[in-house]
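Hello again, I could really use a second opinion on something today. I've been staring at a protein lately and its backbone has me curious. You're getting the sequence in one-letter code plus the fold written as tokens. I'd be grateful if you could look everything over and explain what you see. No rush at all, and the record is pasted right below:
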Amino acid sequence: MMPVPQLRQNVSSMERRVRTHVRAKMHRFAAIVPQELVSVCRREMERLGLDILEESEAGIEFQGKLEACYRANLWLRTASRIVCRWFSIKVGAREELFARVVRLPWELWIDAGVPVRVDVYLKGARITHSGLAQKAFQDALRQRFETLGRMVRFLEGSHGGGKTEEDTSIQGEGFVQRILLHVQHKQGVISLDTSGAHLHRRGYRIQHAGAPIRETLAAALLLQSGWTPQMPLIDGMSGSGTAVIEAALLAANIPPGRRRQFLFEKWPSFQEKTWAYLLKRADAGRKALQPGTLIGVDRDAKAVVVAQENARRAGVAEWVTWHAMPFENVDPQKWSIPPGLVFLNPPYGVRLEVDRSLYERLGRHLECCFRGWKAIVLAPHRELLIFDAVRPRKIRRLRHGGLSICAGFYDL
């Protein structure tokens, strides 16, 4: 057993190294975001005051100290995750990859007690088999920690195409440290996930009704629609209530990550006081909303109950009004609501046959009862969004999980 004085000395030395080489330095990060949402995510980042470097194939690159990473995870509503572009290395043969990886100061960055998943992506590299590159990488990481008397547990990773950035990094209730190695020709970049679970997992939607829209996509559509927090919003086919809950979080200036944990909280470099300060500032910036202008509607009373519970967990229940009724029965004039935004996410999916007549009925109802309103309607096919009664001002094609969908934006 290591003598206590020596153990204390090692702990003290480790703390100094973390402070000098991690906390005090500027780092490069990336907000991973689908290409069709890059512009809206970039505007979010600009409002947060993040130091943007460039747009990339993965999303948007930025730089800053660890606090910038914390802020991005806490506040970005449209990003999928935040990764740290940790280290660039030259990658030749398998032996060279091992030698370079084993020398890196992993112990300053990741907690060996958190299971690790290594994902490898090769393009024009000397190592042609991603499985061999992954094994060399894992062997080096294992040896590095074994010299420090610590063990690393590895989970199955990707060999260049099996899993994507949208996969969760949660196993049960525990975190998984995802490490990404991208090699193009002889240049390799090692990135560390900082988020843990995909950022659409806000922590409030434990239950869902049917096939819910992702929180990140709902937020992006709201930000693109021209809707402002001063305008009413009706989520006409609310299901789990995602769209109207995201609108409430946005209007109340509540960060989307306020009710969840992040992987960076498990890092040796985690600055607890800095994180507590960011949360305190966020809580101080909350705004109270006027009840009655955010409305969730669904014909399924059980779905409404689920949505109400989700709103309660999100901390916005007092500001959202719910109705169990078909959208075709909604008339905002009878509720004395001025024009705002109506959000419609009709049921669709791989196994569901599209009801074309439903979309035509929606178009007629929008034209009849929602004059002066803005509208967003989602559909699996573009032609479903061109109604006889009203035409969209624009249609955007988006990815939603494994589906390609279209969003129609209307000025009624």
Residues 4-193 form a domain with the VC0802-like fold (CATH 3.30.2130.30). The radius of gyration is 24 Å. DSSP finds ten helices and 17 strands in the chain. Residues 1-9, 161-173 have pLDDT under 50 and may be disordered.
